[in-house]
Amino acid sequence: MFKIGIDVGGTFTDFVVTNEGEPPRYFKTPSTPHDPSEGVMAGLEDAAQAYDLSIHEFLDTTELVIHGSTVATNTLVERKGAKVGLITTDGFGDLLEMREGLKEDRYNLRMTPVEPLVPRYLRMGIPERVRADGSVFTPLDERALDRELEYLRQEGVEALAVCFLFSYLNPTHEALVYEKIRDKFPDLYTSLSHEVIPQIKEFDRLSTTVINSYVGPVFGRYLQHLKDRFAPYQRFGEVLIMQSNGGVAPIDDSSKMGVRAILSGPAGGVSAAAYHGQLLGESKVISFDMGGTSTDISLIEDGVPHLAHEKFEGGWKIAVPMIDIHTMGAGGGSIASVGPGGILHVGPQSSGADPGPACYDKGGEDATVTDANLMLGYLDPNNFLGGKAKLNKDLAVKALEERVSKPLGMKTVEAAYGVSRVVATTMAEGIRLMSVHRGVDHREFAILAFGGAAGLHAGQVARELRVDKVHLPAAGPVLSAYGMLCTDLKYDFSRSHPASLDGIDLQTVRSILIGLESQGREKLRAQGISEDDIEVQRSADMRYLDQVYEVNIAVPDPSLEDGAFLSEWSGNFHQRYQELFSYHQQDQEVRLVTLRVTMVGRLSRISQPQGTKS
């Protein structure tokens, strides 16, 4: 039986196919941005032919497909999501626009505020109020709710986001709103904040809930379209969707929580890098994924990728657990241009899959990194894409000459080398910046390079960074798809419980952790995961008294005696704080903010790869 990993990128769609007792086989086909599933089916046709099977025979003997995609990301970044209506506590409709009073780059005076995903005329305030202790101060005004729902219906909203103050403590009012919505608009995509992230910090919860409703309908339609593509194959197995946290989830769960798939594609590559790092005996790895459109960087220590619990994407804050990935607009298709001051720029604009670099001979006229690599002799024009495509060197030279060398007054080959150096420097600076922010020294890491363009630039990047080792996996050009077959089912649960460690009620803490674990076990058992294959990971967001931002640290085994449990817990926090900020305050009060549980259901792994080179 076949297992297939599929990664839909901006330029190419990658496939890794495994069959029992055989080494994995790799395939790559151009992406089809107008309908990504079209490129998926084209690649599956190629794979079927390689196994001398018809597409029906191939898919009827496929037990599992794990799929990663940039559909949710592109929907948010390109602002092509649903028309969303927001229902919130009366008087708090403008919180979405006020944000936290901060910008992503707070020192950039020219940075304009990002346009709200929900315009003001679609933000409805409903009289209701829950106190900070979870008790109801003002009951929900159902008549006002009915009026606003009718107004939103007339405005033609395609999705609703519901976020009331303190609903993570008492979701009764949000549940009542949902009942009304189900009665009036049974097919309307709806996100409830207490289900998306039941935790403190109003803007985080609001922003994440709105994003889920914004991308959810588009992502859900794509996943349904994908299911329809597979429907004719009666013995076809299951489709799992790659999540931003490095795990996978069933297609129905992913449709409901599109916000958790914002980094669906890149997360697969980091998972594969972590797996390869363990096989190579590397405890510290820089995951370096350079594709046609962008480069994704992530840090891995002891086989575990660094995680973030809040991240800005497309100018909006997402507060769900996700692999900490830094994306740069530098890839094989990145466009090289000369600015008014005679400065060479590479990216972030990309030629994409269509028309692509000039050398693709598909109508592209801009000079790109791929054109520079072809000009420098790094690429074989007759063996591109495994021989499935040929590159036109004359067009590459022409584009570089017109767009770069003439404006700079230099030879074309010098211009091509300049493009290569600039893109390498851009990526090296991105790695430096990320490592400094995460409190690590990048020189202690090895680079694991993958993606269609990484092998061409990893050496230059390593020299810039003074990194001693670079690993190039044999599956490098399709490693993100490979990584999807190195993942597990993974569900994240959280609950805020603000308290000082000095006087915390540990029985309450244990009760919360047990409750979150029970939710996860129920979901994993529904997927057929046995108890032996279930792993529990516990963590907490903590901070010193009067601080605003938290540090996520591991929570000890709750079965420990109270004194030992508290001692280890506070010790974990001080140690992690020291690692991140080079100091800690042993005598300062430590506060718990949010408890987290990740439930992992182990899946079988792909066969050990062969041919990794250093």
UniProtKB/TrEMBL annotation:
Pfam families: Hydant_A_N, Hydantoinase_A
Domain Hydantoinase A/oxoprolinase: 205-491
SUPFAM superfamilies found in the cross-reference section: Actin-like ATPase domain
Lineage, opening ranks: unclassified sequences, metagenomes, ecological metagenomes
Domain Hydantoinase/oxoprolinase N-terminal: 3-183
GO molecular function terms attached to this record: 5-oxoprolinase (ATP-hydrolyzing) activity
Stated name of the protein: Hydantoinase/oxoprolinase N-terminal domain-containing protein
GO cellular component: cytosol
InterPro entries xref list: ATPase_NBD, Hydant_A_N, Hydantoinase_A, Oxoprolinase-like
One BP annotation, GO: glutathione metabolic process
Alphabetical list of PANTHER family matching this protein: 5-OXOPROLINASE RELATED, HYPOTHETICAL 5-OXOPROLINASE (EUROFUNG)-RELATED
